[in-house]
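hi! just following up on the protien thing from before. the input was this:
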Amino acid sequence: MTSQQRKDFLSYQQGELDAVLMYKNFAEMTDDPILKEAFLEAAKDEGKHANILSQFTRRKLRPDPTLANITKKAFKILPKRLILLGISFGEYQGGKGYAPYADIPEIKGIIDDEYRHGDTFKALSKEV
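and the predicted 3d structure came back as:
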């Protein structure tokens, strides 16, 4: 693994861990059972992604609560449609961010999950 790949994978790993915390917060904050299930499923997948990445980085990282704290405040005041569209955009950007490593099967699986999450939250944004 090159130093650039290691740097990228550590960044991705941190992002996945931070997303787990964010999605768990959202699941706790919503009364909507469909949203709760989507948030918990995304949290589970993001945790799986962080675990996959840790196999490459050989590092155990901890989530940084900064993103979760900011998004928790936003979840309380912004329209849910806007929150869900923002999540969708972030997931699509995440998928694009992994593109340089799409030839690695494990990373290709993460990319597929990121785009699936983007599609899920985009669709949910039309229902709230």
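The longest helix spans residues 3-29.
DSSP finds five helices and no strands in the chain.
cheers
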